[in-house]
Structures are given as structure tokens and as C-alpha cells.
Specification:
about 350 residues; Phosphorylase Kinase, domain 1; Aminoglycoside 3'-phosphotransferase, Chain: A, domain 2; six-stranded antiparallel β-sheet; two-stranded antiparallel sheet; 10 helices; about 15% strand
Length: about 350
């Protein structure tokens, strides 16, 4: 199957992939009486997008009276203790929706792996358009500079809005430990790389040393998403400047807000730049803000100074490289058969080289 076909299918509801099935009878029995409308086994489809946690659509009933929910679980196979944390994602989404409307509400968490083979949680379904590498036709297909500008603005504006949330206002003041956060992040992602490497990449270890040796003083802490990108959001079909949902909260914590900004900007490719990886955002379309404009817009809306942003671009690029290496490792050892991941090892190597080149 071609890369274009895989990307095209990744945004659709699909039949559940081989090896990622869920026993609908057992799940339905567990959910009965715990969710509105859950009186019978649900119909199950799978969301084809995403690279790590598995996401399913649960439908109870048929036609206009059908009730839909979304189920999230970790990827197949062993995972690191602190990764793919369904309990943390449930904690965040069962509270955050009160003060941050783009956060879908979570209703139920189950930590018993006997039900579907892994911990999971169930949340509300939000309807919107997820934009990945290309702008879809309903938003102008990349040919509408005004729509493209709105897409770039909504990424930054929603991030600034999220970082302004008072954690105590939604009982999330204890979700993380801000003191020493950045150092733990660098050390943690280095350990993840060591556990997932499939060949030697000395540059990755060199980068981790550089990051530790050049740790800046972090600004005041805020709530963090930890994987902020356009394709972890959904926008309204009739308004690309309106965010209707933000997804993938399993790494939500308290810490350095510039790590979120570095994550989203590290793959923000300007129109005059070449990029050898799989860019997750259509940042080179006409009208899309440049990386520098996006950074300034965040500074204007958040009031944070960005003199140390280059460090966070390096760290964000390194971190995304490790994420891709982790995914490739699962493919390499056969934990997943998803052919989208076959080239992720090479993309991880590219990102390590890009991170090294971005060092100030």
C-alpha cells in the first residue's frame, strides 16, 4: 500500500485492525449501567489515525437514537510504566472540560486488563475535522490562504488559552511535579530512546548530553499537554479557526510551558525549508504563519518571553525523534503490523540530525 493511501485511510473510521480487536460482549457487559444507553454490546469501529494509543468508536443502538462514545487504550504489547497512561488521561479529561471547553469529557476509567486486555477509559465523542499533513477539501484543500491562516492561528491561540488555565480551578494542581521538570524530561526521553533503539545512533546520546548541559531556568509552570500539534486537535467543519476538541492527554502534567511550544514548533516547516520527515502539519501552504510568526503570536497571547526558545526547539525535535523511534521499535519487533510505521526509524534519525543542527 502506498504512503499516500495509508495517510488517506488514517483519518477514517475503519474496521478494527487485525490484532487490535476488542471483545464487544465482554466490554458491553462491563459497561452496562455505567454509561447512558449501554444496554447491549456496542458496535465497534476503529479510528485509523494516531500512532500510539488505540482509539475506538463505541455505538449503542442504531439510527437517530444511537449513542456514541470513544474508547482509548494503550498500544498492543509491553509499554513503559509511565507511558500511555490511561489513568492520567482520564484524570485530566474528567476535570479539565469544566474550564477548558476543547477538552472532551471522560466518563469512566477501567484499570482491569481482564476486560479488553489493557486499562482503558471512555469519553464523549466530539465531531470535527482533524487536519494532518494536508488540508482536507472541506477546509479549502490548502488553496484558501484565509482558511490556512486560521488553522495556523488556532493551533497557537488554543495552546495559549490552555496554558492560562488555573490548575486549581479544575482540581489538577497535583497532576505533576513542576520542580525539576525539564531535567526529568530530558533524562526520561533519553531512557526511552535507550529502551527502543534498534541500531546505534551516537548523535541521539550526544544530543541528550547537550540538553542536560544547557538546561535553562524554566518559566513559571502551567498545565502541559506534552504532545501539542494540529493533528491532535479537531476544528469546526465550517470554521477552521474554531477548535472543537483537543485529544491525546495521556502525558498531561504540570511543568515548563515552553516544552509544549517547542513540541509544536519543532515540526513547523517554513515554506523555504526542506524537510525529510513526515511533517504532521501543512505549514507550507499559502497563508499559514511561519514558525517565527507563530512563536511571536504565542508570546503576544501568553505574555511569556521567548529568548530561550531555541533550546526548546532542540528538545522538542529530539523528543519527537524518540517518539518515532519508540513506534518503529514496536513495528520492528512485531508488536504492531501497521505498515504506516515501517519508515519511522529513518524519520527518527532525520529528526536527531535536525535537532543537532538547531543547537544555538
Amino acid at each position: 500500500m502506498t504512503e499516500e493511501k495509508l495517510l488517506e485511510e488514517s483519518d477514517k473510521l475503519i474496521d478494527v485492525r487485525e490484532g487490535e480487536e476488542i471483545n464487544a460482549e465482554k466490554l458491553g457487559a462491563y459497561l452496562r449501567g455505567k454509561l447512558e444507553g449501554s444496554g447491549a454490546p456496542p458496535a465497534l469501529r476503529q479510528f485509523g489515525g494516531g500512532h500510539a494509543n488505540l482509539t475506538y468508536l463505541l455505538t449503542f443502538g442504531e439510527g437517530a437514537s444511537a449513542i456514541e462514545y470513544v474508547l482509548r487504550r494503550p498500544p498492543i504489547g509491553p509499554v513503559a510504566k509511565s507511558a500511555h497512561d490511561m489513568g492520567r488521561e482520564y484524570q485530566a479529561l474528567s476535570r479539565l472540560y469544566r474550564v477548558f471547553p476543547p477538552a472532551p469529557r471522560a466518563f469512566l476509567h477501567c484499570d482491569d486488563p481482564a476486560i479488553i486486555g489493557a486499562p482503558f477509559f471512555v469519553m464523549e465523542r466530539r465531531h470535527g475535522v482533524v487536519v494532518r499533513r494536508e488540508v482536507p477539501p472541506e477546509l479549502g484543500g490548502g488553496k484558501d490562504p484565509v482558511a490556512n491562516r486560521k488553522l495556523s492561528e488556532v493551533v497557537i491561540d488554543t495552546l495559549a488559552e490552555f496554558h492560562a488555565v488555573d490548575p486549581a480551578a479544575c482540581d489538577l494542581q497535583d497532576i505533576g511535579k513542576p520542580e525539576g521538570f525539564l531535567r526529568r524530561q530530558v533524562e526520561g526521553w533519553t531512557e526511552r530512546y535507550e529502551r527502543s533503539k534498534t541500531s546505534e545512533a551516537p548523535l541521539a546520546i550526544e544530543l541528550s548530553r547537550w540538553l542536560l548541559e544547557h538546561l535553562p531556568a524554566s518559566p513559571a509552570p502551567s498545565l502541559l499537554h506534552n504532545d501539542w500539534r494540529l493533528d491532535n486537535m479537531a476544528v469546526a467543519a465550517d470554521d477552521p479557526g474554531k477548535c472543537v476538541a483537543v485529544y491525546d492527554w495521556d502525558m498531561c502534567t504540570l511543568g515548563d510551558p515552553l516544552t509544549d511550544l517547542g513540541t509544536v514548533l519543532c515540526l513547523w516547516v517554513n515554506r523555504d525549508e526542506e524537510f525529510g520527515g513526515s511533517a504532521p502539519m501543512p505549514t507550507q501552504t499559502p497563508g499559514f504563519m511561519s514558525r517565527e510568526e507563530a512563536a511571536q503570536r504565542y508570546a503576544d497571547r501568553s505574555g511569556r518571553k521567548l529568548a530561550i526558545l531555541p533550546y526548546y526547539l532542540v528538545f522538542g525535535t529530539f523528543k519527537v525523534g524518540v517518539v518515532l523511534q519508540q513506534i518503529y521499535h514496536r513495528y520492528h519487533i512485531g508488536q504492531t503490523k501497521d505498515e504506516r510505521f515501517a519508515g519511522f526509524g529513518a524519520m527518527a534519525e532525520f529528526l536527531f540530525a535536525l535537532a543537532a543542527a538547531r543547537r544555538p
